[in-house]
Amino acid sequence: MQLVQETNRYKKKTFWSKYIILKKYLTEEEETIFLIFL
Hints:
Blueprint: H1 2-23, H2 28-36
């Protein structure tokens, strides 16, 4: 159970770090689309 939580937390972290990097290159329109498809 603990492992699952750790994995999820890790996934969230990597997701957000990727998102922050991507954000620099996205226009606001693209960003909105990206967030909708989460």
